[in-house]
């Protein structure tokens, strides 16, 4: 991908060897740079080219891998790189001042929303809200821009973007480093991460068989903690080797450079079902990992909340409406995403199946409870997030801005708010 070799690190010997892909330094310091209005993901190669997505599987504390047009997303950079530049780097030459107060010729307030990686079904509600005119009706002119070099969280913290897609796990990690950002709407209400080997690998029948095998990773302490807990819960020791993924977890497994890796059921899982390779997967809740790590949602800065709460409410309300429409009309929403994000080269059938998975498995909440009002769409799952945060703290997965391990977990209630949902 970048012409640098990836590094393999043996936990038993501490040695490193090249295995192809990008270098370990690249995994910790590199993110694909997309400038506003030019987001482009990898096109499907025979319907199954992998892409990167900005969350746990892609960065130090984030979770997402790679798929056809890019959803386990995240990004190919490590969160440490973004955090190292937390208060200094801006995206694609933009200034540190977001244009939340500016208006266009029609009197609409200009707002910038930043993707967490590339367009996918996690972002679909924002595209629907724009397509359906929900933002315009709220007096907003929303510009959807590609992820900045230093990451969406930093862009929001620095005022480069007004809003972005992220998750409470990432927000908590940034908060430990000193960022002042909050999640104001949570889309995904339960974990979607799956940890898989190729179905053709008959040596792995359950997580305990990961013991002594090689993990395809993007360098995350978080992922290490999760895999270790799953192995131990299943009766194993929790020891494994690691290889830094260069371009694609699928490719790394297929080339036999690694034995297992992380994916998302709503994206890579769909990709594997439709195009292969077939996977043998295990979920975190089944093997001792507490809480909800996949609290994907919309974030903004504390500064924006305090200085312009009216803007935040308008954006959250319109975005919520977009996601609710997508949840009720998944096929139409899929078509909107494909239309509104042409550079992503998304295949309509693939996006439809991703949305079907989200709806059928109720990833965004129980539709019946949403309908009868017993659950408000977009509510932050602070209880689930806190259980996961506490687990990470117990596993020594958190470090401060000086890379020193800290044992105090972020407080989910302090980095999220539901005040703008109604």
Furnish the topology, listing elements before pairings.
Layout lengths: L6 E3 L6 E3 L5 H6 L49 H6 L24 E6 L9 H8 L2 H4 L2 E6 L6 H7 L4 E5 H10 L3 E6 L6 E6 L15 E4 L3 H13 L7 E4 L4 H6 L5 E5 L3 H8 L3 E5 L12 E6 H6 L1 H20 L1 H11 L7 H13 L6 H6 L9 H13 L28
Parallel strand pairs: 3-4, 3-5, 8-9, 8-10
Antiparallel strand pairs: 1-2, 1-9, 5-12, 6-12, 7-10, 7-11
Helix pairs in contact: 3-11, 3-12, 11-12, 12-13
Question: Can you describe this structure?
Answer:
With 422 residues, the protein is of the alpha/beta class. Helices cover 32% and strands 14% of the residues. The chain is built from 15 helices and 12 strands. The strands form 2 sheets. The protein has a 7-stranded mixed beta sheet. The chain has a 5-stranded mixed beta sheet with strand order 4-3-5-12-6, sandwiched between helices.
Task: Produce a short descriptive summary.
With 422 residues, the chain is of the alpha/beta class.
Output the keywords.
422 residues; alpha/beta; 7-stranded mixed sheet; 5-stranded mixed sheet; 15 helices; disordered N terminus
Judged by helices, strands and strand pairing, the structural class is alpha/beta
Strand order of the largest sheet: 2-1-9-8-10-7-11
- Report the major sheet: 7 strands, mixed
Q: How many individual β-strands?
A: 12
* Percent of residues in beta strands: 5-15%
Discrete helix count: 15
Globally, the shape reads: globular
Give the topology string: H per helix, E per strand.
EEHHEHHEHEHEEEHEHEHEEHHHHHH
Kindly state the percentage of residues in helix: 25-40%
Q: Distance between termini?
A: 45 Å
Could you list the spans in which at least 5 consecutive residues all have pLDDT below 50?
A: 1-54, 58-97
Please state the CA-atom Rg, rounded to the nearest Å.
20 Å
| Arithmetic mean of pLDDT | 82
């Amino acid at each position: 991908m970048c012409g640098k070799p990836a590094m393999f690190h043996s936990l038993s010997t501490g040695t490193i060897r090249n295995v192809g892909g990008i270098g370990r330094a690249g995994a910790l310091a590199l993110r694909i740079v997309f400038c506003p209005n030019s987001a482009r993901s990898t096109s499907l190669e025979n319907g199954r080219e992998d892409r990167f997505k900005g969350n746990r599987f892609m960065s130090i504390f984030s979770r997402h891998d790679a798929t056809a047009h890019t959803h386990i997303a995240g990004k190919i950079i490590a969160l440490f790189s973004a955090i190292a530049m937390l208060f200094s780097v801006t995206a694609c030459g933009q200034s540190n001042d977001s244009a939340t107060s500016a208006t266009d010729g029609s009197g609409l307030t200009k707002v910038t929303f930043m993707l967490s990686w590339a367009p996918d079904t996690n972002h679909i509600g924002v595209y629907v809200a724009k397509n359906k005119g929900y933002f315009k009706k709220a007096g907003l002119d929303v510009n959807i821009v590609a992820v900045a070099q230093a990451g969406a969280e930093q862009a929001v913290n620095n005022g480069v973007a007004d809003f972005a897609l992220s998750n409470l796990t990432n927000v908590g990690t940034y908060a430990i480093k000193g960022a002042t950002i909050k999640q104001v709407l949570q889309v995904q209400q339960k974990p979607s991460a799956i940890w898989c080997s190729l179905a053709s690998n008959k040596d792995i029948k359950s997580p305990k068989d990961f013991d002594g095998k090689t993990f395809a990773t993007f360098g995350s302490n978080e992922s290490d903690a999760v895999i270790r807990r799953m192995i131990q819960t299943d009766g194993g020791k929790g020891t494994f080797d690691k290889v830094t993924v260069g371009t694609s977890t699928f490719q790394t497994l297929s080339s036999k450079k690694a034995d297992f890796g992380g994916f998302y059921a709503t994206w890579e899982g769909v990709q594997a079902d439709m195009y292969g390779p077939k996977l043998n997967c295990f979920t975190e809740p089944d093997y001792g990992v507490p809480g909800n790590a996949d609290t994907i949602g919309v974030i903004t800065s504390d500064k924006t909340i305090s200085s312009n709460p009216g803007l935040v409410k308008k954006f959250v309300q319109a975005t919520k409406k977009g996601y609710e429409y997508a949840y009720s009309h998944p096929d139409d929403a899929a078509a909107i995403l494909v239309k509104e994000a042409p550079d992503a080269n998304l295949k309509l059938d693939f996006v439809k199946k991703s949305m079907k998975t989200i709806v059928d498995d109720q990833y965004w909440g129980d539709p019946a409870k949403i309908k009868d009002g017993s659950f408000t769409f977009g509510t932050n799952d602070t209880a689930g997030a806190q259980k996961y945060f506490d687990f990470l703290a117990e596993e020594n997965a958190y470090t401060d801005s000086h890379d020193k391990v800290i044992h105090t977990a972020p407080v989910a209630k302090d980095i999220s708010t539901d005040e703008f949902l109604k």
